[in-house]
Protein backbone atom coordinates (compact mmCIF):
# COMPACT_ATOMS: atom_id res chain seq x y z
CA UNK A 1 0.00 0.00 0.00
CA UNK A 2 1.30 3.47 -0.82
CA UNK A 3 2.30 5.77 1.96
CA UNK A 4 -0.06 8.70 2.64
CA UNK A 5 2.58 11.14 1.35
CA UNK A 6 3.01 9.34 -1.99
CA UNK A 7 -0.75 9.05 -2.39
CA UNK A 8 -1.12 12.81 -1.92
CA UNK A 9 1.54 13.65 -4.47
CA UNK A 10 0.21 11.41 -7.17
CA UNK A 11 -3.44 12.42 -6.84
CA UNK A 12 -3.57 16.12 -6.01
CA UNK A 13 -3.02 19.06 -8.30
CA UNK A 14 0.30 20.82 -8.79
CA UNK A 15 0.16 23.46 -6.01
CA UNK A 16 -0.31 20.83 -3.30
CA UNK A 17 2.38 18.64 -4.83
CA UNK A 18 4.70 21.63 -4.70
CA UNK A 19 3.77 22.33 -1.08
CA UNK A 20 4.29 18.70 -0.20
CA UNK A 21 7.57 18.43 -2.06
CA UNK A 22 8.95 21.66 -0.68
CA UNK A 23 7.74 20.69 2.78
CA UNK A 24 9.73 17.48 2.75
CA UNK A 25 7.28 14.99 1.22
CA UNK A 26 9.92 13.69 -1.21
CA UNK A 27 12.40 13.01 1.54
CA UNK A 28 9.94 11.60 4.09
CA UNK A 29 10.29 7.88 4.55
CA UNK A 30 7.07 5.79 4.25
CA UNK A 31 5.35 5.61 7.60
CA UNK A 32 7.61 8.29 9.09
CA UNK A 33 5.08 11.18 8.93
CA UNK A 34 4.10 12.58 12.29
CA UNK A 35 0.42 12.93 13.27
CA UNK A 36 0.66 16.71 13.02
CA UNK A 37 2.09 16.68 9.46
CA UNK A 38 -0.50 14.07 8.51
CA UNK A 39 -3.26 16.34 9.86
CA UNK A 40 -1.80 19.22 7.86
CA UNK A 41 -1.79 17.11 4.69
CA UNK A 42 -5.40 16.06 5.29
CA UNK A 43 -6.39 19.70 5.74
CA UNK A 44 -4.60 20.69 2.53
CA UNK A 45 -6.22 17.82 0.67
CA UNK A 46 -9.69 18.88 1.87
CA UNK A 47 -9.01 22.48 0.83
CA UNK A 48 -7.72 21.34 -2.52
CA UNK A 49 -10.80 19.21 -3.13
CA UNK A 50 -13.11 22.08 -2.14
CA UNK A 51 -11.27 24.47 -4.47
CA UNK A 52 -11.50 21.95 -7.34
CA UNK A 53 -15.24 21.49 -6.71
CA UNK A 54 -15.75 25.28 -6.74
CA UNK A 55 -13.75 25.59 -9.97
CA UNK A 56 -15.87 22.86 -11.54
CA UNK A 57 -19.12 24.60 -10.51
CA UNK A 58 -17.74 27.90 -11.86
CA UNK A 59 -16.93 26.23 -15.19
CA UNK A 60 -20.48 24.83 -15.33
CA UNK A 61 -21.99 28.27 -14.62
CA UNK A 62 -19.74 29.87 -17.24
CA UNK A 63 -20.68 27.26 -19.88
CA UNK A 64 -24.39 27.70 -19.10
CA UNK A 65 -24.09 31.49 -19.51
CA UNK A 66 -22.12 31.07 -22.75
CA UNK A 67 -24.83 28.78 -24.09
CA UNK A 68 -27.45 31.40 -23.23
CA UNK A 69 -25.37 34.05 -25.06
CA UNK A 70 -24.91 31.71 -28.02
CA UNK A 71 -28.64 30.93 -28.14
CA UNK A 72 -29.62 34.61 -28.15
CA UNK A 73 -27.09 35.36 -30.89
CA UNK A 74 -28.16 32.40 -33.03
CA UNK A 75 -31.80 33.52 -32.76
CA UNK A 76 -31.22 37.12 -33.84
CA UNK A 77 -28.56 36.20 -36.42
CA UNK A 78 -30.80 33.57 -38.03
CA UNK A 79 -33.77 35.95 -38.18
CA UNK A 80 -31.66 38.75 -39.73
CA UNK A 81 -29.98 36.32 -42.15
CA UNK A 82 -33.27 35.00 -43.51
CA UNK A 83 -34.96 38.40 -43.86
CA UNK A 84 -32.02 39.96 -45.69
CA UNK A 85 -30.85 37.20 -48.03
CA UNK A 86 -31.42 39.47 -51.04
CA UNK A 87 -29.02 42.07 -49.60
CA UNK A 88 -26.30 39.50 -48.91
CA UNK A 89 -25.97 38.58 -52.61
CA UNK A 90 -22.86 36.39 -53.01
CA UNK A 91 -22.78 35.37 -49.36
CA UNK A 92 -25.86 33.18 -49.22
CA UNK A 93 -26.21 29.52 -48.29
CA UNK A 94 -28.88 27.01 -47.34
CA UNK A 95 -29.51 27.23 -43.60
CA UNK A 96 -31.08 24.77 -41.18
CA UNK A 97 -31.31 27.02 -38.10
CA UNK A 98 -29.65 24.32 -35.96
CA UNK A 99 -26.33 24.56 -34.15
CA UNK A 100 -24.51 21.20 -34.03
CA UNK A 101 -21.87 20.46 -31.41
CA UNK A 102 -20.16 17.54 -29.66
CA UNK A 103 -17.89 17.50 -26.62
CA UNK A 104 -14.94 17.67 -29.02
CA UNK A 105 -15.85 21.30 -29.77
CA UNK A 106 -15.06 22.08 -26.13
CA UNK A 107 -11.50 22.40 -24.78
CA UNK A 108 -10.31 19.31 -22.90
CA UNK A 109 -10.07 21.38 -19.71
CA UNK A 110 -13.79 22.27 -19.85
CA UNK A 111 -15.05 18.95 -21.24
CA UNK A 112 -16.03 17.36 -17.89
CA UNK A 113 -18.05 20.49 -17.04
CA UNK A 114 -19.66 20.42 -20.52
CA UNK A 115 -20.65 16.79 -19.99
CA UNK A 116 -22.21 17.57 -16.62
CA UNK A 117 -23.89 20.88 -17.48
CA UNK A 118 -24.80 20.57 -21.18
CA UNK A 119 -25.01 16.78 -21.46
CA UNK A 120 -22.51 17.00 -24.33
CA UNK A 121 -20.93 13.70 -25.33
CA UNK A 122 -18.92 12.28 -28.23
CA UNK A 123 -22.08 11.94 -30.35
CA UNK A 124 -23.02 14.99 -32.42
CA UNK A 125 -26.01 16.77 -30.93
CA UNK A 126 -28.15 19.82 -31.47
CA UNK A 127 -27.27 22.64 -29.10
CA UNK A 128 -29.57 25.43 -30.36
CA UNK A 129 -32.62 25.51 -32.65
CA UNK A 130 -33.58 28.91 -34.12
CA UNK A 131 -37.22 29.98 -33.97
CA UNK A 132 -39.22 29.48 -37.17
CA UNK A 133 -36.28 27.67 -38.77
CA UNK A 134 -36.37 24.44 -40.83
CA UNK A 135 -34.92 22.60 -37.80
CA UNK A 136 -37.77 23.78 -35.59
CA UNK A 137 -40.36 22.98 -38.26
CA UNK A 138 -38.98 19.43 -38.54
CA UNK A 139 -39.53 18.96 -34.80
CA UNK A 140 -35.85 18.85 -33.81
CA UNK A 141 -34.99 20.04 -30.29
CA UNK A 142 -31.82 21.01 -28.41
CA UNK A 143 -30.35 17.85 -26.93
CA UNK A 144 -31.29 15.58 -29.87
CA UNK A 145 -28.33 13.35 -30.83
CA UNK A 146 -27.74 12.79 -34.55
CA UNK A 147 -27.18 9.22 -35.71
CA UNK A 148 -27.54 9.64 -39.51
CA UNK A 149 -27.94 12.48 -42.01
CA UNK A 150 -29.22 11.92 -45.53
CA UNK A 151 -28.69 8.15 -45.16
CA UNK A 152 -25.08 8.53 -43.97
CA UNK A 153 -24.37 7.26 -40.43
CA UNK A 154 -22.74 9.89 -38.21
CA UNK A 155 -19.68 8.60 -36.37
CA UNK A 156 -19.05 9.53 -32.79
CA UNK A 157 -16.12 11.81 -32.02
CA UNK A 158 -16.53 14.39 -34.77
CA UNK A 159 -16.57 18.14 -34.29
CA UNK A 160 -19.85 19.97 -34.75
CA UNK A 161 -18.01 22.78 -36.53
CA UNK A 162 -16.58 20.33 -39.09
CA UNK A 163 -20.03 18.84 -39.64
CA UNK A 164 -21.52 22.31 -40.20
CA UNK A 165 -18.78 23.19 -42.70
CA UNK A 166 -19.51 19.99 -44.62
CA UNK A 167 -23.24 20.82 -44.62
CA UNK A 168 -22.48 24.31 -45.98
CA UNK A 169 -20.72 22.77 -48.97
CA UNK A 170 -23.21 20.01 -49.73
CA UNK A 171 -26.70 21.17 -48.72
CA UNK A 172 -29.18 22.38 -51.31
CA UNK A 173 -31.92 24.85 -50.43
CA UNK A 174 -35.50 23.56 -50.52
CA UNK A 175 -34.40 19.90 -50.76
CA UNK A 176 -35.59 17.55 -47.99
CA UNK A 177 -32.92 15.63 -46.03
CA UNK A 178 -33.64 12.68 -43.80
CA UNK A 179 -32.34 13.13 -40.27
CA UNK A 180 -32.11 10.22 -37.83
CA UNK A 181 -31.60 11.06 -34.19
CA UNK A 182 -32.20 9.85 -30.65
CA UNK A 183 -34.08 11.75 -27.97
CA UNK A 184 -33.88 10.39 -24.43
CA UNK A 185 -32.53 7.17 -25.93
CA UNK A 186 -35.46 6.72 -28.34
CA UNK A 187 -34.69 6.62 -32.08
CA UNK A 188 -36.60 9.04 -34.37
CA UNK A 189 -36.55 10.13 -38.01
CA UNK A 190 -37.59 13.46 -39.54
CA UNK A 191 -37.19 15.49 -42.74
CA UNK A 192 -35.19 18.73 -42.73
CA UNK A 193 -35.57 21.19 -45.62
CA UNK A 194 -32.98 24.01 -45.53
CA UNK A 195 -33.82 27.51 -46.76
CA UNK A 196 -31.59 30.19 -48.27
CA UNK A 197 -30.28 32.95 -46.01
CA UNK A 198 -27.18 35.11 -45.60
CA UNK A 199 -24.11 32.90 -45.33
CA UNK A 200 -22.24 34.71 -42.54
CA UNK A 201 -21.32 32.86 -39.38
CA UNK A 202 -21.63 34.21 -35.87
CA UNK A 203 -19.11 33.52 -33.14
CA UNK A 204 -19.29 34.30 -29.42
CA UNK A 205 -15.99 35.51 -27.99
CA UNK A 206 -15.46 35.08 -24.24
CA UNK A 207 -14.31 38.53 -23.11
CA UNK A 208 -14.98 41.10 -20.40
CA UNK A 209 -14.74 43.91 -22.98
CA UNK A 210 -18.00 44.88 -24.73
CA UNK A 211 -17.10 44.57 -28.38
CA UNK A 212 -18.31 43.34 -31.76
CA UNK A 213 -16.62 43.17 -35.14
CA UNK A 214 -16.89 41.58 -38.56
CA UNK A 215 -14.28 40.25 -40.99
CA UNK A 216 -16.36 39.93 -44.15
CA UNK A 217 -17.43 36.34 -43.48
CA UNK A 218 -17.97 36.09 -39.73
CA UNK A 219 -19.53 38.27 -37.05
CA UNK A 220 -17.83 38.23 -33.65
CA UNK A 221 -19.67 39.38 -30.52
CA UNK A 222 -18.10 39.27 -27.07
CA UNK A 223 -19.96 37.82 -24.10
CA UNK A 224 -19.70 41.23 -22.38
CA UNK A 225 -21.47 42.90 -25.33
CA UNK A 226 -24.18 40.23 -25.42
CA UNK A 227 -24.81 40.71 -21.69
CA UNK A 228 -24.93 44.48 -22.14
CA UNK A 229 -28.01 44.09 -24.37
CA UNK A 230 -31.11 43.57 -22.26
CA UNK A 231 -33.56 42.89 -25.07
CA UNK A 232 -33.41 40.87 -28.28
CA UNK A 233 -34.01 44.06 -30.27
CA UNK A 234 -30.90 45.58 -28.71
CA UNK A 235 -28.84 42.50 -29.50
CA UNK A 236 -30.23 42.50 -33.05
CA UNK A 237 -29.00 46.11 -33.35
CA UNK A 238 -25.43 44.95 -32.72
CA UNK A 239 -25.69 41.93 -35.05
CA UNK A 240 -27.40 43.89 -37.85
CA UNK A 241 -24.72 46.62 -37.69
CA UNK A 242 -21.94 44.02 -38.07
CA UNK A 243 -23.85 42.18 -40.78
CA UNK A 244 -24.12 45.47 -42.65
CA UNK A 245 -20.31 45.89 -42.41
CA UNK A 246 -20.01 42.49 -44.12
CA UNK A 247 -22.60 43.29 -46.80
CA UNK A 248 -20.78 46.56 -47.54
CA UNK A 249 -17.42 44.69 -47.75
CA UNK A 250 -15.94 47.20 -45.32
CA UNK A 251 -13.11 44.88 -44.25
CA UNK A 252 -11.84 44.43 -47.80
CA UNK A 253 -12.47 48.07 -48.71
CA UNK A 254 -10.59 49.33 -45.64
CA UNK A 255 -7.66 47.11 -46.54
CA UNK A 256 -7.71 48.52 -50.07
CA UNK A 257 -7.75 52.10 -48.82
CA UNK A 258 -5.02 51.39 -46.28
CA UNK A 259 -2.83 50.05 -49.11
CA UNK A 260 -3.63 53.24 -51.07
CA UNK A 261 -2.47 55.29 -48.09
CA UNK A 262 0.71 53.25 -47.81
CA UNK A 263 1.51 54.03 -51.43
CA UNK A 264 1.15 57.75 -50.62
CA UNK A 265 3.47 57.35 -47.62
CA UNK A 266 6.06 55.62 -49.77
CA UNK A 267 5.74 58.29 -52.49
CA UNK A 268 6.32 61.02 -49.88
CA UNK A 269 9.51 59.27 -48.74
CA UNK A 270 10.83 58.66 -52.26
CA UNK A 271 9.89 61.94 -53.97
CA UNK A 272 10.05 64.45 -51.13
CA UNK A 273 12.44 62.78 -48.77
CA UNK A 274 9.75 63.10 -46.05
CA UNK A 275 9.14 60.24 -43.70
CA UNK A 276 5.42 60.44 -42.94
CA UNK A 277 5.67 57.62 -40.38
CA UNK A 278 2.56 56.09 -41.93
CA UNK A 279 0.45 59.15 -41.11
CA UNK A 280 -1.10 59.35 -44.59
CA UNK A 281 -2.31 55.76 -44.51
CA UNK A 282 -3.68 56.30 -41.00
CA UNK A 283 -5.43 59.52 -42.06
CA UNK A 284 -6.95 57.77 -45.09
CA UNK A 285 -8.23 54.90 -42.96
CA UNK A 286 -9.63 57.24 -40.28
CA UNK A 287 -11.44 59.46 -42.76
CA UNK A 288 -13.14 56.41 -44.25
CA UNK A 289 -14.06 54.86 -40.91
CA UNK A 290 -16.74 57.54 -40.42
CA UNK A 291 -18.26 56.70 -43.81
CA UNK A 292 -18.21 53.00 -43.06
CA UNK A 293 -19.94 53.50 -39.73
CA UNK A 294 -22.65 55.64 -41.33
CA UNK A 295 -23.21 53.02 -44.03
CA UNK A 296 -23.42 50.22 -41.43
CA UNK A 297 -25.79 52.30 -39.26
CA UNK A 298 -28.09 53.00 -42.21
CA UNK A 299 -28.13 49.51 -43.72
CA UNK A 300 -28.26 47.89 -40.25
CA UNK A 301 -31.45 49.87 -39.46
CA UNK A 302 -33.08 48.54 -42.64
CA UNK A 303 -31.94 44.98 -41.94
CA UNK A 304 -33.50 45.17 -38.47
CA UNK A 305 -36.81 46.50 -39.78
CA UNK A 306 -36.92 43.85 -42.51
CA UNK A 307 -36.49 41.15 -39.83
CA UNK A 308 -39.37 42.60 -37.82
CA UNK A 309 -37.28 44.35 -35.16
CA UNK A 310 -38.00 47.93 -34.16
CA UNK A 311 -35.41 50.33 -35.66
CA UNK A 312 -36.34 52.88 -32.99
CA UNK A 313 -34.82 50.45 -30.47
CA UNK A 314 -31.60 50.68 -32.48
CA UNK A 315 -31.58 54.45 -32.15
CA UNK A 316 -32.21 54.30 -28.40
CA UNK A 317 -29.60 51.57 -27.93
CA UNK A 318 -26.93 53.60 -29.73
CA UNK A 319 -27.83 56.60 -27.57
CA UNK A 320 -27.46 54.53 -24.37
CA UNK A 321 -24.20 53.08 -25.64
CA UNK A 322 -22.88 56.55 -26.51
CA UNK A 323 -23.59 57.66 -22.94
CA UNK A 324 -22.33 54.56 -21.13
CA UNK A 325 -19.35 53.69 -23.32
CA UNK A 326 -18.43 56.98 -25.01
CA UNK A 327 -14.83 55.93 -25.62
CA UNK A 328 -15.51 52.42 -26.83
CA UNK A 329 -18.39 52.66 -29.28
CA UNK A 330 -19.39 49.36 -30.78
CA UNK A 331 -16.50 48.01 -32.78
CA UNK A 332 -12.81 48.65 -33.35
CA UNK A 333 -13.46 51.21 -36.11
CA UNK A 334 -15.38 53.38 -33.68
CA UNK A 335 -12.68 53.50 -31.03
CA UNK A 336 -11.53 56.76 -32.59
CA UNK A 337 -14.98 57.58 -33.96
CA UNK A 338 -17.43 57.52 -31.06
CA UNK A 339 -21.05 58.36 -31.50
CA UNK A 340 -21.58 62.03 -32.12
CA UNK A 341 -24.62 64.20 -32.83
CA UNK A 342 -24.11 63.86 -36.58
CA UNK A 343 -24.19 60.09 -36.46
CA UNK A 344 -27.26 60.00 -34.21
CA UNK A 345 -29.06 62.48 -36.50
CA UNK A 346 -28.33 60.22 -39.48
CA UNK A 347 -29.80 57.29 -37.55
CA UNK A 348 -32.92 59.34 -36.74
CA UNK A 349 -33.27 60.14 -40.44
CA UNK A 350 -32.95 56.45 -41.39
CA UNK A 351 -35.52 55.49 -38.75
CA UNK A 352 -37.99 58.11 -40.12
CA UNK A 353 -37.39 56.92 -43.70
CA UNK A 354 -38.16 53.32 -42.66
CA UNK A 355 -41.20 54.34 -40.60
CA UNK A 356 -42.70 56.22 -43.57
CA UNK A 357 -42.28 53.16 -45.80
CA UNK A 358 -43.88 50.93 -43.18
CA UNK A 359 -46.85 53.32 -42.82
CA UNK A 360 -47.43 53.52 -46.58
CA UNK A 361 -46.85 49.80 -47.10
CA UNK A 362 -43.84 50.43 -49.38
CA UNK A 363 -41.16 47.71 -49.65
CA UNK A 364 -38.25 48.22 -47.26
CA UNK A 365 -35.57 48.73 -49.91
CA UNK A 366 -32.67 50.95 -48.75
CA UNK A 367 -32.44 54.22 -50.71
CA UNK A 368 -28.66 54.17 -50.31
CA UNK A 369 -27.53 51.05 -52.14
CA UNK A 370 -24.70 49.08 -50.55
CA UNK A 371 -21.67 50.67 -52.20
CA UNK A 372 -19.78 47.49 -52.91
CA UNK A 373 -22.89 46.00 -54.52
CA UNK A 374 -23.45 49.09 -56.66
CA UNK A 375 -19.92 49.25 -58.01
CA UNK A 376 -18.96 45.58 -58.36
CA UNK A 377 -20.42 42.43 -59.78
CA UNK A 378 -21.31 39.52 -57.53
CA UNK A 379 -18.29 37.57 -58.83
CA UNK A 380 -15.94 40.47 -58.17
CA UNK A 381 -17.23 40.77 -54.66
CA UNK A 382 -16.77 37.04 -54.07
CA UNK A 383 -13.20 37.24 -55.38
CA UNK A 384 -12.51 40.26 -53.21
CA UNK A 385 -13.44 38.24 -50.14
CA UNK A 386 -11.73 35.06 -51.25
CA UNK A 387 -8.82 35.23 -53.71
CA UNK A 388 -9.23 31.52 -54.42
CA UNK A 389 -12.94 31.80 -55.28
CA UNK A 390 -14.03 30.47 -58.68
ZN1 LIG B 1 -19.23 49.56 -37.04
Give a structural overview.
The protein is an alpha+beta fold and 390 residues long. Helices cover 55% and strands 13% of the residues. The strands form 4 sheets. A 4-stranded antiparallel sheet has the order 5-4-6-7. A 3-stranded mixed sheet has the order 9-11-10. Helix 3 (35-83) crosses helix 5 (111-118), helix 3 (35-83) crosses helix 9 (232-247) and helix 10 packs antiparallel against helix 11 (279-306). Bound molecules: zinc ion. Zinc ion binds next to helix 9 and helix 11.
SSE layout and pairings?
Blueprint (H helix, E strand, L loop, with lengths): L3 H8 L2 H9 L12 H49 L1 H4 L3 E4 L2 E4 L9 H8 L6 E5 L4 H4 L7 E5 L2 E2 L6 H11 L6 E7 L2 E7 L2 E4 L2 E5 L6 E3 L3 E5 H6 L3 H16 L2 H23 L6 H28 L4 H14 L16 H20 L10 H5 L2 H8 L5
Helix pairs in contact: 1-2, 3-5, 3-9, 9-11, 9-12, 10-11, 11-13, 12-13
Bound molecules: zinc ion.
Uncertain regions spanning at least 5 consecutive residues: 1-29, 257-274, 373-390
Strand content range = 5-15%
Count of helical stretches: 15
Indicate the mean pLDDT: 78
Q: Percent of residues in helical segments?
A: 40-55%
Reading the helices and strands in chain order gives HHHHEEHEHEEHEEEEEEHHHHHHHH
Class inferred from helices and paired strands: alpha+beta
Widest β-sheet, arrangement of strands: 5-4-6-7
The tally of domains stands at 2
How many E-type strands?
11
Q: Please give the alpha-carbon distance between the first and last residues.
A: 68 Å
Ligand names:
zinc ion
User: What overall form do the CA principal axes indicate?
Assistant: globular
Radius of gyration, whole Å:
27 Å
Major sheet, described briefly?
Answer: 4 strands, antiparallel
Amino acid sequence: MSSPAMYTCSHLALPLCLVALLGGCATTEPGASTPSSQAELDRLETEQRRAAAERFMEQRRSLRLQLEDQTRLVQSHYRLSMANADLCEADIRPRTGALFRSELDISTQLRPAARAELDLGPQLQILVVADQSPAQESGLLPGDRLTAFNGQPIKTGILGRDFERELEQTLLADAPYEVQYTRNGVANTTLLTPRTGCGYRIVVVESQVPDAYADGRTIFVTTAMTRLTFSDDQLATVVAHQMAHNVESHGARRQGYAIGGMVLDMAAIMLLGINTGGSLSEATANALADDFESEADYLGSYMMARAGYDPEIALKFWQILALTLPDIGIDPETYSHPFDAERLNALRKAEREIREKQETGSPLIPEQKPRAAASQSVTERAQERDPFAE
